[in-house]
Records
---
Amino acid sequence: MAANPPGQGFQNKNRVAILAELDKEKKRLIQSQSMNNPGASIPLSRPAVNKEFRDQAEQQHIAAQQKAALQHAHAHSSGFFITQDSSFGNLILPVLPRLDPES
């Protein structure tokens, strides 16, 4: 078996001492930061409830926009329109009537 180089034991002890010192410093900084900002670790709101509220508000906003766009289209156009989710972000879609081909 190969023997360890003569200075390797000292290097390992030195690394362990440096890592221990860094860990102590990190803990000290975290503790001093929490003392300076006592409320920093307390969440201000529940993210799940906040997200649900935002989603609901966004859906209501989109519904209101769709209604306004539909009313505008009916007032200013002779075509037919419907509200439907679109892959391209359109609020309303035109409806084209199917005509039977004349024989």
Note: The chain has a mean pLDDT of 78.
---
Amino acid sequence: MAPRWPGRLSSLAPWVAALLLALGVERALALPEICTQCPGSVQNLSEVALYCKQTSELMLHARCCLNQKGTILGLDLQNCSLKDPGPDFPQAHTAVIIDLQANPLKGDLANTFRGFTQLQTLVLPQDVTCPGGINAWNTVTSYVDNQTCQGQRNLCNSTGDPEMCPENGSCLPVGPGLLQCVCADGFHGYKCVRQGSFSLLMFFGILGSTTLSISILLWGTQRRKAKTS
């Protein structure tokens, strides 16, 4: 009697569909490494959880609060025994709120938050200074077990120094207490004094000519040595 293959295949179809669906869901929920750097999940009463639950479009996954595109808007790494936030921390540069309390953090955190221009609430251990100092935040509040930095200031608007950037440059905030000067369109070089776009054609032309001249010189030197010997 011939085997009934069509019947068997039809019975396997639901299992195959379920497997493909599970793989698709797992791929869709692939989290940035920073979200799973510390075991566990966001605590229900934490600042990150409260922020995330305010909007139905936001979701809590592991230690992160994500929007529907998977962008990190909140990060809760409290009580993770961290001496520093780690190499994956820049993945959370889009975060609006970050909680790092109850960690033995060491050193200056100023450059750790370079690029975190959206950050508005940062919860730190009580003995750790807000990055950029008190002038980089609207409010710095100390509690028994943590310190909260709220309202990141744009130091470009608050320094009051018109000569901070050159005449043809503009100030750009790049994180708490951090800023840089960017040349205006059409200017480049030291203090943005050179006008016009940087000519790559001229640069590579000079580089090519110099390389060719040196190559010919070396070739001629080697040729004379060969004739002498």
Note: The helical segments are 5-28, 47-52, 155-158, 200-228.
---
Amino acid sequence: MTRLNMINQCFCGESCEEILSSLEHLATQVQEKWVIDAITSMKSANPLGLKIFLRTIREGRSKNIEQCLETEYIAISNLIAGKISKNYYEGARPMLIDKDKKPQWVPSKLEDVTEEMVAKCFSRSFTEDDDWLPLQLPTKTSGTHVGASKL
């Protein structure tokens, strides 16, 4: 089996849990460093972040670049605002402040991240908050600048 076939087989899963399970199963069949690295990376990453990333990638397949940028802006704005979790800042704490390299993700497991939590990350409700501006992509004729946080 080629590496591309292995990647396609593992990453065609519908959920992060299925992808991780496929990688773990593959690791019992082949001795490939990239498989172990992928498992290690997924297990140490922010579980909510993994699910947000997977949804963004999957939905982005059917969107144009402007729609993708708007979706990513909404998700990252909600994460930075801490409306769903404080994991955005927890990612920096163990690397830059305490230097213990042991983030305490909440929730700590993929299976504890609900679809409702992920959906909230894509909510446009942050635009009702005075601290955040909606994304405004420049047009060729308007010269409008991209909206950004006032923080």
Note: Residues 28 and 35 are 10 Å apart (CA to CA).
---
Amino acid sequence: MATKPTRREVLSLFRSLMRTAREFTDYNIREYTKRRTVDAFRHNRKLSDPAEVAAAFADGKSQLGVAKRQAVVYSLYAPSIKSVMEM
């Protein structure tokens, strides 16, 4: 059984996800990643069962890995023109 993550670990995961979102060069992907991160943390805010909290934290860690890999891929194929939202 996994242990319940500490508040510091959860906040660190949140900050890491938000930092990773900033690495996306495309405005739409960057904002989607930020919005999805905030929504997921708000949705899981009221979890009280340690097993559910640990499962949500583990899912967040796996999502962080996915986001980091996708940021690298998107940076390799970044569009040469900025979005209208960034101009």
Note: The mean pLDDT is 92.
